[in-house]
Amino acid sequence: MTISSLVLSILFIGIGATLVMDLWTVLLRYLGVTTLNYAMVGRWAGHLREGRWRHAAIGKAAPVRGELAWGWLLHYATGLVFAALLAAIAGEGWLRGPTLWPALLFGVVSVLVPLCVVQPALGAGYFATNTPAPLKSCLRSLATHCVFGLGLYLAALGVAAAGN
């Protein structure tokens, strides 16, 4: 596999998996379930540029110009980084013939990033301990990252099929 085909594969897998996750969150919102507002991620990133890593409550922090766009950009950039990590761990063989379990396992493990990095930085605490229903919040994050793992697999299948 050439470097350019590897990069293209990672791009398509990362974007595809993130799109699958976004479709899941659209369904959740339709069902009345609150999901992450990516503008808050963008707000956090805006304050990060000023040296502020953690917030007591990101919703109460001063708004940042372009925060929604920054939030979505970071969301998709994270999907790309995760796709690259999965490709590095699972290897070229997996990219040529993707199987479900490595992608699903990676999706499950990836939930540690929001639970241990993003949520504390936004003021929700480690494992959402500062939210009204921490277990419910953690389970929702886990389900979303399982869907992301499924998206990694489906997108990789598409990339592999296109390459054959």
UniProtKB/TrEMBL annotation:
Q: Which UniProt keywords apply?
A: Membrane, Transmembrane, Transmembrane helix
Which Pfam families does the entry link to? DUF2938
> InterPro entries this protein is in?
DUF2938
Membrane-spanning segments: 7-31, 73-91, 103-122, 142-162
Entry keyword Membrane: yes
This one is known as: DUF2938 domain-containing protein
Which classification does the entry list for the species? Bacteria, Pseudomonadati, Pseudomonadota, Gammaproteobacteria, Pseudomonadales
